[in-house]
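Board work, copied verbatim: U32 family peptidase
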Amino acid sequence: MISISATVESIEQAQALLDSGIDTLYFGEEHFGLRLPQSFSREEQQQLTELAHQQGAKVTIAVNGIMHPEKMKEVPAYLDFLASIHVDQIMVGDPGIIYLLRKGEYDLPFIYDGETLVTNSRQMNFWHQKGALGSVLAREVPFGEMIKISEKLAGFAEVQVYGATCIHQSKRPLLTNYYHFTRNEERADKERGLFLAEPQDPDTHYSIFEDEHGTHIFATNDLNLMAQLAELTTYGYTHWKLDGLFTKGANFVEIARRFVAAKELLESQQWSQMAADKLTAEVAKYHPKERELDTGFYAIDPEAIK
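↓ predict structure ↓
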C-alpha cells in the first residue's frame, strides 16, 4: 500500500489535508524539528494528533535536529510528552535520541532521518537493525541508484516526491554573521524570502534563511516526481513525502489532492501517461509562481555524480 505524508502549517490546513486523503501528518516544534512550515505548541500538537487519529490517519513528529548537549537535556521531557499523546512515530536524526529512546524504553517508533547522509542500503539497514521502521532517503540519490538500493533494503525508504530540497545546513548563523560584517541590521528568517545567486549564473535562486538550528539553503528548483510515481512504486518506494515549506495554505492542499489521486490510480491499476501528464500540469498550476519545478537528481546518471 502507498502511504503519503504531508507537512502541516495550521490546524485548518491539517483538517483539509486529512479530508483530501493524506495518510500521515508531519509536524512538530522548531526547537527540535528541522525546516517545518510552522512550529506548534504542545497543546496544538496534541490537538493535531487527536484530529488525525479521529480520521484514521497517523502523525509523525519531527525530532530530527542535531541536539547539542544543552538541548539534549530537554529531549526526554519532549519524548515523555509525545508518548503521553500517543503519536505514531517520530523522525530522528541524532543517534543520541535513539539512545534515549532505548534507555527510557519509550513506546515511540522512529524513522531515521540523516538527510544527505542516507545514500545506500547498508546505512539504511544498519538503522533498521537499531530499531528504525525505515529511513529517509537522501534527495540526491538518482533513480539508477535507487533501483540497486531497493534490492537489499530491509525497512522502508521514505522518498520526497514534492517540495523544496535543502542542499546545505550549517549550525552557524551565516546570514547574521554577514550582516554584522557589513554593519547592517536585517532579518534572516524564512518569511524574508532571501536567496543566493551565483555570479556566473543569474538563473540560480538558492532560498536561504536562518532559525535556531542555523542556516538552511535550498536548491533553485523544487521537486515534483508526479510523472515518476509509477517507477517508484514498481521498485517498492511507496512512502511518499510532500513538503509544503514554501507552498502555502490551500494551494498545498490542492497539490496533496493530486498525489492522493495518483495513489488511487496506481493502486487500482488505472495509472496512465495521460493521467501522469494531467496531474503533473495541475501540480505546477498550484505551485508558487516564483519557484520552478523539476525532478532534481532523479534522472541523473549515477556515474556522473562525484
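The chain has one domain: 3-165+221-294.
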